[in-house]
Design brief:
heterodimer, A: MetI-like fold, 6-stranded mixed beta sheet, 22 helices, 12 strands, B: 266 residues, alpha/beta, Rossmann fold, 2 domains, 9 helices, 30% helix, globular, ABC_transporter-like_CS (chain A)
């Protein structure tokens, strides 16, 4: 098996459940462990040294005093390490105030009637907009300078942003079915919040708390620095910075200790936060690991295939297509088929059968994270294993995707997206293209076809967008149409209409079509030939007549057929 | 349908139900003058395409959408435009939601999900262990499922958990909202057969909602066809499928691929 695109070092996807900590998280955790160690040990081991006055004042770095001494002759290296405990404790306390109060309030707003909730959240938004440090200054000034008041001040200043984050993150969970079902089961609202909402916020909140720790650290140190925080004889990093500042031109080493410690503590929190975020979001994780766009490659051992048909004669010709994950799992295991001009070939299978991957790879579109190889892929006369002009491909191959909503660019009108191929590649005049689109819309029973083109995707329902995409696909002079579950999202009456249009288009355009569906009944009605896929392989190939006469041999096709029959209307015909 | 059921007082009575959603430019009449009844122990299939108002009807019955006009009676409880927001007894009606992925909390095991239904406040799994296992077995889930999390189940298995959760309350009425539409064809059949079997076993009074006429056949005694907020047809399964009285019902039947009236070639 070819593994051209698979770096051997790539972590196997299968171990997805046992999520590995990334290098960022490990770095952060090691840093944090060191800081905690220092915070625990330094006051006991170096406390005396940090307190002892001597007459060796304002020294530069020496062998005895690696960072020199302050104006009272105390060792600055010892002081920087000893200050770690106070700084970390105060920062943890302040962060805890922000997080706990913020999360509780953010959840409580969901117990309020909507009107009051809106009011509270608006007031909170104003508080968020107010600079946190200024708010902390005001609170600290009111409470009087001191470690306690600075901690409370910074803690309170951080609450509004956590209220907002919690309330916003809870919003999509509140409308989930499991929340409404719990309500229906008679679970009281406060219990719903604690049982269903809070646990599902856990991951993101942890990430945000770690990041908030870094912000709190700088704010607290800032307050100590300007004299509103920790007071003499106590000291934290901010206090040490303030003490060293007057002498910074004489002895720059004075501020090195607290600065480095501040940076280390902040970096530890940030690394942990980002590491946790990357771990909880698999998409981000793969981005971190290095994104690679899937490419279709010629198979290495290009087994000579019998030249059963000249590829130029068929709309689509695929030989020995294989799609493999980075972990080496074969999603598509050697699929070969042809689609003749004017022929509709159905690709049927259930989820996970590899039918969509096969279809998309046949159009040269290989998703990220998998490697695709083939002995031959010729679409509308273009050899996709070699260089192809994207313009020619866009003209000759039309695609209809499964999910219409994510296919459209939300910022552009339908018209500019759907008439791109005729306008750009076929040189059709803009007005002519627009009229043709409106005509195609009309045939697919899209309401108000003349004005639809000027709308943006969000103004149409999913079913309507799907029809618009099909209308556009039928508009081009494509030699091959690849449609991935094009009617799944549609109502049955509309589906029937769309299928009729496909049949008509085949007759008039003479285009070949690859039609992917999970619905054997649809495929039976539409397709000239049907390929049944399961587990990445084509298990059976049937002509229309064979399928109509139920001449199937593979047990899987039989069970699929039985399930489909079960879901059809009664066999008794209505008059 | 048995004649005895027809004589008894209906379990659900929907009378001239009207619902308006949104206001101003977005105002839509989701339901208009809909009336039908469901006899005790009887199952009604509610069919309609997108925008027909079938999901709105389910949400009205569940008390999630207020009644605009008309009235709805479930068991002995009567709901009118003024009372529709009243707090309800969970034993009155339960809903099996459409999407098996969003209907179970990812952080709660199957056992916890069922325990919550049996004991909404404490949701103590240990206290209800035997009941939970009995219900999971009833929906044909393998032993040991109680301690597994939703991501360890397939879509069809999740839907079975959701069904067990709704039924273990022993509600007077069950509303199943498109419970098969997110599933693979063969899994759809399994879930439908399970529901058909449970319907007989537990004498369920059920409203089974689907966009697909073909699907409701196996689990319904009667069929209601909704189109654009209006009830187009209501009748016994056999009559609706073999001799539809309404043009829309006929068009719907003819649009089902594989059905006798399905034609896409000239």
């Amino acid at each position: 098996m070819s593994t051209v695109l698979t770096p051997s070092s790539a972590a196997p996807e299968r171990t997805g459940r046992v999520r590995r900590a990334g290098p960022m998280l490990i770095t952060g955790l090691i840093l944090l462990a060191l800081l905690v160690l220092v915070a625990v040990l330094a006051p006991a081991l170096l406390g005396d040294e940090a307190r002892t006055l001597s007459d060796r004042r304002l020294l530069g770095p020496t062998a005895d005093h690696p960072l020199g001494t302050d104006e009272l002759g105390r060792d600055l290296f010892a002081r920087a390490l000893v200050a770690t405990r106070t700084t970390l404790l105060l920062t943890v306390a302040a962060t805890a105030i922000s997080v706990v109060a913020g999360v509780v309030l953010g959840l409580l707003v969901w117990l309020m009637p909507q009107r009051i909730r809106d009011l509270v959240l608006t007031a909170n938004a104003v508080a968020v907009a107010f600079p946190g440090l200024v708010l902390a200054l005001v609170v600290a000034a009111v409470l009087g300078p001191g470690a306690m008041s600075a901690t409370v001040a910074v803690g309170i200043a951080g609450i509004p942003s956590f209220v907002r984050l919690t309330a916003n993150m809870a919003a999509p969970i509140m409308v989930r079915d499991y929340v409404s079902t719990a309500r229906l089961l008679g679970v009281p609202r406060p219990i719903v919040l604690g049982r269903h909402v809070l646990p599902n916020l856990g991951g993101p909140l942890l990430v945000l708390s770690a990041n908030s720790f870094a912000v709190t650290l700088t704010e607290l140190s800032g307050l100590s620095f300007i004299g509103l925080g920790v007071q003499n004889p106590e000291y934290d990093f901010g206090r040490l910075l303030a003490d060293g500042l007057p002498h910074v031109y004489v002895q720059p080493a004075q501020i090195v200790g607290p600065s480095v410690m501040l940076v280390l503590a902040g970096a530890a929190a940030m690394f942990i936060g980002d590491g946790l975020a990357a771990r909880s979001d698999p998409r981000l994780r793969s981005l971190v690991r290095g994104r690679r766009t899937g490419v279709l490659r010629p198979a290495r051992s290009a087994a000579t295939h019998e030249p059963d048909r000249d590829p130029a004669d068929s709309a689509l010709s695929v030989r020995d297509l294989r799609v493999t994950t980075a972990a080496g799992r074969e999603l598509v295991a050697g699929v070969s088929f042809d689609v003749g001009p004017g022929e509709i070939v159905g690709l049927v299978g259930e989820s996970g059968s590899g039918k969509s991957l096969t279809a998309m790879s046949a159009a040269g579109l290989v998703p990220d994270g998998v490697a695709a190889t083939a002995g031959r892929v010729t679409a509308a006369g273009h050899d996709l294993l070699g260089p192809v002009s994207p313009g020619d491909l866009a003209r000759d191959v039309a695609l209809v995707y499964q999910d219409p909503i994510s296919t459209f660019n939300p910022a552009l009108t339908l018209e500019s997206q759907l008439t791109e191929v005729p306008r750009v590649h076929l040189g059709v005049h803009r007005r002519r293209a627009r009229e043709a689109l409106a005509e195609s819309f009309r045939e697919l029973r899209i309401s108000s076809p003349d004005t639809r083109g000027r709308q943006h995707p969000h103004e149409l329902s999913g079913g309507m967008l799907q029809r618009a995409m099909i209308a556009a696909a039928l508009l081009t002079e494509a030699k091959l149409i690849i449609a991935d579950e094009p009617t799944t999202a549609l109502d049955v009456t509309v589906q029937a209409e769309v299928l009729r249009r496909f049949v008509a288009a085949k007759d008039t355009l003479g285009a070949g079509m690859l039609f992917i569906s999970h619905d054997l009944a649809v495929v039976e009605a539409l397709c000239d030939r049907t390929l049944v896929m399961r587990g990445g392989q084509v298990v059976e190939e049937l002509t229309r007549d064979q399928l109509a006469r139920r001449e199937v041999t593979h047990p899987y096709t039989r069970s699929l057929l039985a399930a489909t029959r079960y879901l059809e209307p009664t066999e008794e015909t209505h008059p | 349908m048995s004649t005895a059921a027809a004589v008894r007082r209906p379990a659900v009575e929907i009378d001239g139900l009207g619902v308006v959603l949104g206001s101003g430019a977005h105002r839509t009449e989701a339901l208009r003058g809909v009336s039908f009844t469901i006899a005790p122990g009887c199952s009604v299939g509610l069919v309609g395409e997108s925008g027909s108002g079938k999901s709105t009807l389910a949400r009205v019955l569940a008390g999630l959408v207020p009644i605009g006009s008309g009235r709805v009676r479930i068991g002995d409880e009567e709901f009118t435009p003024g009372t529709s927001r009243r707090r309800r007894d969970p034993g009155l009606l339960q809903l099996v939601p459409q999407d098996p992925y969003s209907s179970l909390s990812p952080r709660r095991t199957a056992g916890q999900a069922l325990a919550e239904a049996m004991d909404p406040r404490r949701a103590d799994v240990r206290a209800h262990r035997t009941d939970i296992e009995e219900w999971l077995a009833r929906v044909e889930l393998p032993a040991g499922s109680a301690d597994k999390y939703p991501h360890e189940f397939s879509g069809g298995q999740r839907q079975r958990i959701a069904i067990a959760r709704a039924l273990c309350v022993r509600p007077r009425v069950v509303v199943a909202d498109e419970v098969t539409s997110a599933l693979d064809v063969s899994v759809q059949v399994e879930v439908l057969e399970l529901l058909a079997q449970l319907r007989v076993e537990l004498e369920l009074t059920m409203l089974f909602i689907s966009h697909d006429l073909a699907v409701v056949r196996h689990v319904s005694d009667e069929v209601a066809v909704l189109c654009a907020g209006e009830l187009r047809e209501f009748g016994g399964v056999r009559q609706v499928y073999t001799a539809p009285r309404d043009d829309y019902t006929r068009r719907l039947l003819d649009s089902v691929p594989g059905g006798p009236g399905f034609r896409i070639r000239a």
